[in-house]
Write a structure and sequence with these properties.
Blueprint lengths: L1 H12 L10 H20 L3 H7 L2 H15 L4 H9 L4 H16 L4 H11 L2
Helix pairs in contact: 1-3, 1-4, 2-4, 2-6, 5-7, 6-7
Amino acid sequence: MDEAVGMLDVFIELIPLRPPHTHYVEKFSVLDVQYKILHCLLTQNNPIKQVIKGKREMWEALEDCFMEIFDRFDKDDLHRLRTEDDGIWCAMFDLVCHWTNAEHILPKLSEARQAIAEAS
């Protein structure tokens, strides 16, 4: 349990204390690390995942942290996120959204996915 709480603390600490108009690269770096943590929690079978999976409030806290950064992306940032590197990040994020939908967790990630898809 302590490891899971520690993981959540690390996730929360990744949120920059800077204002929302932070440069794209800084926002993307934090979002990408958070995405990778979520990816590991969803795909790896380990004790941390089992503790977090059993605690809805921990999933909600992880989702809130992710969305706090995501909400700092403006329309141009979202377009860049969707198109940069041939959209590979978005393709991987789509996969994570698929997994979260299948497990009925993190519903706000689908909203983020939709916002990215609509960015032009």
